[in-house]
């Protein structure tokens, strides 16, 4: 009886006793280590080894992000018709193989920007499918009233990856070479596929319907659901404003650290890795603060602090001994409050969405929130080329404030301490039965 009571109350011990959740957590942690290392290593190879300019770096980042715009909606409908575990395993195996092409090209003497662009595109395509599948899979594994804790654990692992991934990638690039660092990313993706492949829980796969016609209908259903819910619509718009300007900022940032501030690859990795400890703290706070102060207050306040602190970066001058500690502090705060926003928004989205269309809603919000990031990356490269690094940093950092400003006047700011669930919280078996029967309760704004 005690174990059962623990499971019903959604306690942490009950959550961690779930073997499938542990396997998902381990796989997600490894996958995020691979992703975080790759996001640093590929640009560093372009900048340090291939002497890429601002426009070329912007193009590389845009190519990796373009699949979000092109494939997110299709991926959502596709994932909702298949087992999330199979999608995640296939995606990580594919990412490991794609990264393996970089050291192969290096050994053959043909490594150049075209090879990096192809690898970045393949990794970007597979990342779209993995990200949609993993966010949809959590709802199929745990009870609805444990979603905030489950998200906190998964986002905590992503935060840990933000500590180790960039630092490890930057250090390996400095000590050895980019191709050696890429191998580490491939290893983590392979490890993820093994762990997630061991998930034993059976998933109910919906009927595949009428092929392409059915997929188009499902995509439209996801779009209409998000557009018709004021809170979900606000999540999409706020995410779009943030991700667009963050993509522009990070393109300039990755150029400014080694060229404007003359940091080594290891120092760049350390500066970026500082977001990780902050994000760990943010994940822990996200499991408690929304229920105490209200989801709306936490979202708006955290977004203001996270985005505002980035205005410190353009003011940095001087030697590494001065700038590096300040960068660490800025990134720590950005990681803490940015992660608090991320986990809280994810809990809002999952609570407002019926189980049967989780994949499509994830994809729709990803499409709305991150679809324009390739344009943001290109804009960052353009601004860096024509306005200089410091001015471009100031403009893009200031533009981040548009996201919390929008949230302050949106329905998100009015969310209280309790979320209006689209379906009553219950065990995965109940949720799967609701999905099979097509039951759906319209969420409240």
Output the helix-strand order: HHHHHHHHHHHHHHHHHHHH
CATH superfamily: MFS general substrate transporter like domains
Number of domains: 1
Kindly report how far apart the N and C termini lie: 37 Å
Count, helices: 20
CATH architecture: Up-down Bundle
The radius of gyration computed from the alpha-carbon positions, rounded to a whole number of angstroms, is 21 Å
Descriptive report:
With 445 residues, the protein is mainly α. It has one domain: MFS general substrate transporter like domains (Growth Hormone, Chain: A, Up-down Bundle), CATH 1.20.1250.20. It contains 20 helices and no strands. The chain has helices spanning 2-9, 12-16, 19-49, 54-79, 84-108, 113-141, 147-175, 178-197, 212-228, 230-260, 265-273, 275-286, 289-293, 295-309, 320-351, 358-370, 373-387, 389-399, 402-408, 428-437. Helix 4 (54-79) runs parallel beside helix 6 and helix 4 (54-79) packs antiparallel against helix 10 (230-260). Mean pLDDT is 78; it is low at 1-11 and 423-445.
């Amino acid at each position: 009886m005690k174990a059962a009571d623990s499971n019903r109350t959604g306690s942490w011990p009950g959550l961690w006793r779930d073997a499938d959740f542990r396997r998902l957590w381990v796989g997600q942690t490894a996958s995020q280590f691979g992703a975080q290392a790759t996001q640093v290593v590929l640009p560093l190879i372009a900048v340090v080894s291939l002497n890429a300019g601002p426009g070329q770096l912007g193009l590389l980042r845009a190519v990796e992000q373009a699949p979000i715009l092109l494939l997110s909606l299709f991926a959502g409908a596709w994932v909702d018709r298949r087992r999330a575990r199979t999608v995640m395993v296939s995606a990580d195996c594919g990412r490991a193989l794609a990264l393996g092409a970089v050291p192969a090209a290096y050994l053959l003497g043909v490594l150049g920007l075209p090879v990096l662009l192809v690898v970045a595109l393949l990794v970007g395509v597979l990342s779209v499918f993995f990200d949609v599948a993993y966010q949809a899979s959590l709802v199929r594994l745990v009870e609805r009233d444990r979603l905030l804790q489950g998200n906190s654990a998964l986002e905590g692992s992503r935060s840990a990856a933000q500590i180790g991934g960039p630092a490890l990638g930057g250090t390996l690039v400095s000590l050895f070479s980019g191709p050696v660092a890429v191998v580490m990313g491939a290893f983590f993706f392979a490890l993820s596929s093994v762990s997630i492949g061991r998930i034993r829980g059976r998933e109910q796969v919906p009927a595949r319907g009428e092929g392409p016609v059915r997929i188009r209908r499902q995509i439209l259903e996801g779009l209409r659901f998000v557009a018709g819910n004021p809170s979900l619509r606000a999540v999409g718009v706020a995410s779009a404003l943030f991700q667009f300007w963050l993509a522009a900022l990070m393109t300039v940032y990755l150029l400014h650290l080694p060229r404007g501030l003359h940091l080594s690859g290891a120092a760049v990795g350390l500066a970026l890795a500082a977001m990780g400890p902050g994000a760990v703290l943010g994940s822990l706070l996200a499991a408690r603060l929304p229920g105490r102060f209200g989801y709306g207050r936490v979202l708006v306040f955290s977004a203001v602090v996270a985005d505002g602190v980035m205005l410190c970066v353009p003011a940095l001058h001087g030697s590494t001994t001065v700038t590096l500690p300040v960068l660490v502090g800025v990134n720590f705060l950005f990681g803490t409050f940015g992660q608090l926003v991320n986990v809280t928004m994810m809990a809002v989205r999952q609570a407002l969405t019926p189980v049967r269309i989780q994949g499509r809603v994830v994809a729709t919000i990803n499409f709305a929130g991150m679809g324009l990031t390739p344009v943001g990356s290109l804009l960052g490269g353009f601004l860096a080329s024509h306005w200089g690094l410091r001015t471009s940093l100031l403009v893009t950092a200031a533009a981040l404030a548009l996201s919390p400003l929008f949230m302050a006047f949106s329905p998100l700011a009015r969310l209280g301490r309790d979320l209006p669930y689209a379906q009553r919280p219950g065990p995965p078996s109940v949720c799967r039965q609701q999905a099979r029967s097509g039951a759906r309760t319209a969420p409240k704004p």
